[in-house]
Specification:
Number of strands: 12
CATH superfamily of the largest domain: Response regulator
Oligomer: single chain
CATH topology of the largest domain: Rossmann fold
Largest sheet: 6 strands, parallel
Order of helices and strands: HHHHEHEHEHEEHEHEHEHEHEHHEE
Distance between the termini: 69 Å
Shape: elongated
Number of domains: 3
Helix content: 40-55%
Strand content: 15-25%
Structural class: alpha/beta
Strand order of the largest sheet: 2-1-3-4-5-11
CATH architecture of the largest domain: 3-Layer(aba) Sandwich
């Protein structure tokens, strides 16, 4: 069977009896083309399933209007909200977003960097994997003068533009709140410290304990990927023998919810026997019983800032090539029933 021949810009021009250049300008909303002509061209293009060759146009203009984005996983509340905000902001300015998932694999992340570079994106926004330590494969963008920036999971020492949350304060406020509620044996479920955000949250946790003269009990600290299953295993270990913890500070809400389910299963009352805090302020924390205290990261604002910075980098490459921009976004602790605070949802 013969493959159908794509309808081209030349076909539109011939059918309407106008020049190819007029069709091109109409499709691109050129101000010198009348609204009537634009409407006729766009109507025929739609009816004929004309497909604009963005790659060819990008090669001619050296401008693709596409920004690349690499995220570890998009399924969770925080990253999905950030991605939505980035796309919304870029779309306002006429840019499209090409989204890739690294699945927390440095090897796949490296591959995606090269794919997006070959796709001629005009800039790259990255939240790195848990385990990325060698950032040299991002140099391809810097060498080519293509804007590169990181957010949330940012490199510890690699020179680059960065937007990160105030992770230390989030860890400190969570732990301090539990201490103020009378807790003294506070377990901590966190991610690998190869990732900067978990290293900083852990530092906030330890400093809050020090303020109360409490030494860190390493048997109650768990460094692992923050999954439901890993949180359950941590609970089984920490509640295997007395004395039990009187609180758990979990570094994401999936883990906090997992801890809540485990406590209910073994007959622990929340918050009387065990107080719990999470991280990210996932909407699930407000509908679970009891509602879970969690750190609000303002993900939509993070995404808007990331996209706005990328737009600035594109518009003024020379200025931003001389020095790197670093923003720290604020966090707040949303106190709820799981840590002993009266919740409006329970009244």
């Amino acid at each position: 069977m013969k493959k159908p021949t794509p309808y081209t810009i030349k076909d539109i021009a011939a059918e309407l009896g106008i020049s190819v250049s007029t069709v091109s300008r109409a499709l691109n909303n050129h101000p010198h083309i009348s609204d009537k002509t634009k409407a006729k061209v766009k109507d025929l293009a739609s009816k004929s399933d004309y497909r604009h060759n963005a790659l060819a146009a990008g090669l001619r203009s050296n401008k693709s209007n596409i920004i690349g984005l690499i995220v570890p996983k998009i399924s969770m509340f925080f990253p999905s909200t950030v991605v939505t905000a980035i796309q919304d902001r870029l779309h306002e300015k006429g840019y499209n977003l090409m989204i890739c998932q690294s699945n927390d694999s440095p090897a796949l992340e490296k591959e995606l960097v090269n794919v997006l570079y070959s796709s001629r994106v005009e800039g790259l926004i990255v939240s790195t994997t848990l385990y990325t330590e060698d950032f040299s494969y991002f140099d391809i963008f810097s060498r080519a003068g293509i804007p590169l920036m990181f957010y949330d999971r940012v490199p510890k020492s690699y020179p680059a533009h960065k937007i990160k949350g105030d992770e230390y304060t989030g860890g400190y406020l969570s732990t301090l709140h539990l201490l103020e509620q009378g807790c003294r044996r506070i377990a901590h479920i966190t991610g690998p410290t190869s990732c900067s955000i978990y290293e900083e949250r852990y530092q906030g946790y330890t400093d809050a304990l020090k303020k109360y003269g409490i030494a860190v009990d390493e048997s109650m600290v768990f460094f692992h990927e923050l999954t439901w299953e890993n949180a359950m295993r941590a609970c089984e270990e920490v509640f295997a023998a007395e004395p039990f913890p009187d609180a758990i500070f979990a570094c994401n809400d999936t883990s906090a919810i997992s801890v809540t389910e485990h406590a209910k299963r073994v007959g622990l009352k929340i918050p009387e026997d065990l107080k719990i805090t999470g991280y990210s302020n996932d909407p699930r924390t407000q509908i679970i019983e009891p509602a879970i205290t969690s750190v609000e990261q303002f993900p939509y604002e993070v995404g808007r800032q990331a996209a706005s910075l990328m737009l600035e980098l594109i518009q003024d490459k020379e200025r931003y090539s001389k020095s790197f921009v670093s923003f720290t976004t604020p966090v707040e602790l949303e106190k709820r029933a799981s840590s002993g605070v009266n919740s409006p949802f329970l009244q």
